[in-house]
Amino acid sequence: MIFITGGAGFIGSNFVLDWLAQHDEPVINFDKLTYAGNINNLASLTHDPRHIFVQGDIGDTAQVAALLEQYKPRAIVHFAAESHVDRSILGPAAFVQTNVNGTFGLLEATRAFWSNLPESEKAAFRFLHVSTDEVYGTLGPNDAPFTETTQYAPNSPYSASKAASDHLVRSYHHTYGLPTLTTNCSNNYGPYHFPEKLIPLMITNARAGKPLPIYGDGQQVRDWLYVSDHCAAIRRTLEAGVPGEVYNIGGWNEKANLEVVHALCDILDKLDPKSSGSYRDQIAYVTDRPGHDRRYAIDARKIERELGWKPAETFETGIRKTVQWYLDHQDWVSNVQSGDYLKWVEQNYSQRQTPAGVQQ
Length: 360
Ligand code: NAD
Ligand code: TYD
Fold this sequence. Notes:
Layout lengths: L1 E4 L4 H13 L4 E5 L19 E5 L5 H11 L3 E4 L6 H6 L2 H23 L3 H6 L1 E7 L24 H20 L3 E6 L1 E3 L8 H10 L4 E4 L5 E6 H14 L5 E4 L4 E3 H15 L11 E4 L14 H7 L7 H14 L1 H7 L2 H11 L11
Parallel strand pairs: 1-2, 1-4, 2-3, 4-5, 5-6, 6-10, 7-9, 8-12
Antiparallel strand pairs: 9-11
Helix pairs in contact: 1-8, 2-4, 4-6, 7-9, 9-11
The protein binds nicotinamide-adenine-dinucleotide and thymidine-5'-diphosphate.
Protein name: dTDP-glucose 4,6-dehydratase
Family: Belongs to the NAD(P)-dependent epimerase/dehydratase family. dTDP-glucose dehydratase subfamily.
Organism: Paraherbaspirillum soli
């Protein structure tokens, strides 16, 4: 069986659902169920004996160690993290706690378990660390995309904490020989994405008749990847990745934020038209994010060349599926927009003024 951390979050729950749709190998899903974890994402697995859910903190080395001894997984796929840049700006402590100390605790429990395995199982074991392209910092408009050897230059508390976790994972391979794999992926989107992030926030705000808050001039560029393509890349890396190696994962879909929001509005105008006007009329420019990275872009040629992975979705097919999913899952949206979510929206957006002189 495999042991997943953070399997009730956005990417983790997509991974668990995809995994069990394709394999019979059981999954231990270890998740703290923070505001971002949602066990309802896995409701279809409630009676599935291949899915074992355990609530807990990756920093609790004793609990993780006991679970590893009990279930003896052949691999760990580590998704659990605090993942939202804006939250890391308003409250960085949780990011250091989970992403750095938590990953350290998990690595220690893993090292203790792995060291005692018979030699053949030791060699076959994998610790796959799921990381982000944000560790590489920001690019100028004409810079080449990030490769696996681009120097780390994290700019937010989120990316700095992920960079620290990447370094710890690297050190456990070099020092102890733990068979690690690290993947650095670009921005994901798709089903079960918590509506604090750009794409689901814009879809849910648009439908609720609320403003669509564009930070700064909206010309920041992200490289978007449909979540099931990321899950496929992780499965392939787990299967064929070389221990100690790093693989960049991206969709070759660089888009400015404003372009993404326009695309969402245009799809909504077709699939769920307003009684008058366009969803674009709700766009509102607001104060920029401090330290906002201007551009991310991934050079994904290594994973394509060495592991034969390529994204199946284009931005156009993936974004349309995503909007349709949100239209079809109103109950999911209502459930996650609970008290805590509303508090966050108030905290993040009430301070952001509409800059004078900026066209609405
Ligand atoms: P998410 O915030 O949606 O989910 C995180 C999950 O981790 C939640 O289920 C949460 O309950 C759990 N968790 C948090 N702290 C924990 C702890 N201390 N112990 C156990 N569980 C804990 O995040 P996501 O978007 O699904 O991202 C998953 C991973 O992928 C993260 O490591 C993130 O850095 C990385 N990543 C995300 C993106 C993206 O676009 N979302 C892109 C590249 C990499
Ligand atoms: P986000 O989804 O938070 O991902 P990340 O910061 O990890 O890339 O944001 C994506 C882009 O969208 C980023 O440039 C910030 C911008 N953004 C807005 O313009 N408005 C918003 O309300 C949010 C949440 C993000």
